[in-house]
Amino acid sequence: MLGRRVLSSAILIPVVGAAVYVGGLWFLAVVALAGLLAGYEYLSMMRQSDLAPSFFFGLLLIALFVADAQWPSLDLLRWGLALVPLAALTVEVFYGNAQGSLANWALTIAGAIYIGFSISHFVRLRAVDRGMWWVAVALLGTWICDSGAYFVGRAAGKTPFFPQISPKKTWEGAAGGFVCGLAAAVLLGRFLLGLAVGWGIVLGVLLVFGATFGDLAESVIKRQVGVKDSSNLIPGHGGMLDRVDSLLFVAPIVYCFASVGKDLLF
After folding, report:
1. Domains in the chain, number
2. Is the pTM of this model over 0.90?
């Protein structure tokens, strides 16, 4: 298991790192692919619980969120959020008063917002001043936090941490993730962005909070539909949604921090 995790990471991290460095359409393509794969997994999981959210409208809305982040002048999000939910609800009319129609529509739109809107912040973050470094801090800080929680939890974890949601997670692992994520944010923020230590600590606390609860939030979704992993796409890691769950919370947090900091803090 650990060997497969390391091998998958050794392949994926350089690909993501290259896309972050190059930026532009290459980075957009990686973000869009990750978002669409995660969205497909989410919609597939919902269908395992006798529901039928729309793949077409869900993935379309995810794509529009990401595209709007790249080309904000086109105002894609305004008409996308107006038309796609209404079109998806209109389709349910043709099914009559079928059981689950309202839930199907709501899960389609909510899932697209959860995944598409959240992951689109990576595109927005890459476009800010020193965006490459901000993205690097978000990614590396999250990965280091997750790794710290994983290894400390395996070595010393005893006390359950939200056991009804994620039985294997422990307070010891959460503490390890906190220390590692906080240290990573402070050091990366200082050396890559020139952040003062105090602001690095603020960023680190926010990042760890996002990474921890992003992971737990996806666990809620999986427990509700009775699955362990979102898919088996990535050996040792599960699915794409399993891989980006923490990042879906971290990306908006770091983007807001970077945007506010540009005008008020740094």
Report:
1. 1
2. yes
